[in-house]
Design goal:
- By secondary structure, this protein is of the alpha+beta class.
- It contains 7 helices and 14 strands.
- The strands form 3 sheets. Strands 3-4-5-6-7-8-9 form a 7-stranded mixed beta sheet, with helices on both faces. Strands 11-10-12-14-13 form a 5-stranded mixed beta sheet, sandwiched between helices. Strands 1-2 form a two-stranded antiparallel ribbon.
- Helix 5 packs parallel to helix 6.
- The longest helix is centred in the first third of the chain and has 22 residues.
- The protein is globular, with a radius of gyration of 17 Å.
């Protein structure tokens, strides 16, 4: 079986290759299609980045399964699965906002989240540290939820956003403030780096969070999968252990 270090090297290769392709097109890309709603966008860059990633995986991990946002699931025989988001933050990307990334995880084993606009590479393995550009991440916990900067995200469907607004209305008075960046993978990576104190969101997909959750776990944070609640689907909540119960009481 491939060592974690080898799997991380593959993840980094995929993330940097796709990131370079995306950065070259950044600022000139246009909408190619829509998905779940008219505001859920896909660009040619999304598709090209995933194609590049799948090419690397076909060459370097041919027996592994692949789950990708923009392509069909590919079965494997090794027992490992790669979870791929070739461009997390597509709307930001198409608007020219530098808040997007590439997210790659060999599920539960190795992870890379790459932010090409800042050349920041967040990585982790199941038994190694969480790092950003080789520097170990060790976020300081906030004093309490009232002093915590909390990030979240919202869905594409208007009805779902209304339900999410009800939840965030409970968090706003209890926390220092709220941030909504538009890339779940970067929100998780930035929480691991201590730039945010917590992140929660319902309605994410596995490819949005698989890499970021592993990075946060290895940074010493508490990662909780949120069960479906009413008309809201499953989600994730990542915090410092000390404030996890208080935030979960508001969002779980």
């Amino acid at each position: 079986m491939a060592a974690e270090s080898e799997l991380l090297d593959i993840a980094v290769d995929c993330a940097r290759t796709a990131g370079a392709l995306l950065l070259e097109r950044f600022g000139s890309e246009r909408v190619l299609a829509t998905k779940s709603t008219s505001t859920d966008l896909v660009s040619a860059a999304d598709l090209a980045a995933e194609e590049a990633i799948r090419g690397i995986l076909a060459r370097r991990a041919p027996d592994d399964a692949i789950m990708g946002e923009e392509g069909d699931d590919t079965p494997g025989t090794s027992g490992r699965r790669w979870v791929v988001d070739p461009l997390d933050g597509t709307v930001n990307y198409l608007y020219g906002l530098p808040q997007w990334c590439v997210s790659i995880a060999c599920e539960d084993l190795a992870a890379a989240v790459y932010d090409p606009t800042r050349d920041e590479l967040f990585t982790a393995t199941a038994s190694g540290p969480a790092e950003c550009n080789g520097i170990t991440l060790a976020p300081e916990p906030p004093e309490d939820l009232a002093h915590a900067l909390v990030a979240t995200g919202f869905g594409y469907d208007a009805q779902r956003r209304a339900l999410q607004a009800d939840v965030v209305s409970k968090v706003i008075p209890a926390a220092r403030d709220i941030r909504r960046g538009g890339s779940a993978a970067l929100d998780l990576a930035w929480t691991a780096a201590g730039r945010l104190d917590a992140y929660y969101e319902r309605g994410v997909n596995l490819w949005d969070v698989a890499a970021g959750e592993l990075i946060c776990t290895r940074a010493g944070l508490t990662v909780t999968r949120l069960e479906p609640s009413g008309d809201l689907p499953w989600g994730t909540c990542t915090t410092a252990p000390s404030i996890s119960p208080d935030l979960l009481a508001l969002v779980a």
